[in-house]
């Protein structure tokens, strides 16, 4: 298991249940005499947060809302999302904590969902996260996006991946459900979320071997993985291509079976008839062809993608 980074340790919190109200968590910052300013104002040394409704229950954890009901500073009345992980089922939670802490630094605030701190019990890890009430990209894809909007979202996803890859992190589960909406269209502002299966590689070591992620958006080398063959940051490029394709055609028109047949080599070419029917530009189609190359070594890097003529 990976060790916690200094950045992750710096945002560790001390938490306890309020004696007369188990729905309230009392938070103390670990050994912090100085207050830390976040997007939610100051986090003072003592705050009380009341648990609200549960908003997500997935394979990598549960998420509930909490409201600050007591504490100095400007956080009273604010709402945050708290992710609950079972230690026994979350073998990679140290990876998630390290990634969350790193990409919650100020310079990454516009690109990633922020983590304001974490605390642990004997059985669980709790992550105090930024709450984005507009939900995730998946909720907006009952129909396709116009090409200008799909391009805007794609640029922001690639900018986030550029940051991740240059710091030697691979997301490994890029999909619409892990792209949260800070501002909905037409002037989209998105943030990349859920580092539950992200993986950090040592500098100079570019391969990963454990097959994880969501099947519909998984790269061919992940789908066909024997857990011995290596794969790289190129899995995130494939995921970006799948997200861009889905935005351009919409969920009702997305044929995941055809994509899977292409990914595993049963079909020779990427199906693009829906793109032609919906008059997607040739630049956009060329962009998708580049990102969705079956051979991982043929896919462009995030930086190269950002220099593509479509963007």
Automatic annotation (TrEMBL):
Keyword Cell membrane: no
PANTHER family membership: SERINE/THREONINE-PROTEIN KINASE IAL-RELATED
Residues given in the record as ATP binding sites: 83, 194
Keyword Protein biosynthesis among UniProt keywords: no
Organism: Pseudocercospora fijiensis (strain CIRAD86)
Keyword tags: ATP-binding, Kinase, Nucleotide-binding, Serine/threonine-protein kinase, Transferase
Annotated Protein kinase domain residues: 49-311
Any one Gene Ontology molecular-function term assigned to this protein's record: ATP binding
Glycyl lysine isopeptide (Lys-Gly) (interchain with G-Cter in SUMO2) cross-link, chain position(s): 175
Protein name: Ca2+/calmodulin-dependent protein kinase
Active site per UniProt: 173 (proton acceptor)
């Amino acid at each position: 298991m990976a060790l916690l980074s200094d950045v992750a340790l710096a945002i560790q919190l001390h938490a306890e249940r309020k004696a007369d109200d188990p729905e309230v968590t009392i938070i103390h910052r670990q050994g912090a005499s100085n207050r830390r300013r976040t997007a939610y104002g100051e986090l003072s040394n003592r705050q009380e947060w009341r648990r609200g409704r549960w908003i997500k229950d997935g394979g990598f954890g549960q998420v509930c809302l909490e409201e600050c009901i007591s504490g100095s500073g400007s956080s009273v009345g604010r709402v945050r999302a708290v992710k609950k992980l079972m230690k026994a089922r979350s073998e990679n939670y140290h990876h998630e904590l390290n990634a969350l802490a790193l990409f919650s630094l100020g310079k990454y605030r516009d690109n990633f969902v922020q983590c304001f701190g974490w605390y642990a019990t004997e059985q669980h890890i709790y992550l105090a996260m930024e709450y984005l009430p507009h939900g995730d990209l998946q909720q907006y894809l009952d129909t396709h996006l116009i090409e200008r909007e799909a391009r805007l979202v794609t640029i922001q996803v690639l900018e986030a991946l550029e940051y991740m890859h240059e710091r030697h992190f691979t997301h490994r589960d890029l999909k619409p459900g892990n792209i949260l909406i800070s501002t909905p269209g037409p002037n989209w502002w998105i943030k990349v979320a859920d580092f539950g299966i992200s993986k950090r590689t040592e500098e100079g070591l570019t391969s990963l071997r454990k097959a994880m992620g969501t099947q519909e958006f998984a790269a061919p080398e992940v789908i066909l993985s024997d857990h011995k063959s290596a794969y790289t940051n190129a899995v995130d490029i494939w995921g970006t291509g799948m997200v861009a394709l889905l935005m351009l055609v919409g969920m009702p028109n997305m044929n995941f079976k055809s994509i899977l047949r292409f990914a595993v080599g049963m079909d020779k070419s990427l199906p693009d008839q829906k793109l032609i029917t919906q008059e997607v530009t040739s630049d956009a189609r060329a962009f998708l062809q580049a990102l969705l190359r079956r051979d991982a070594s043929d896919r462009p890097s995030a930086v190269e993608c950002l220099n593509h003529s479509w963007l």
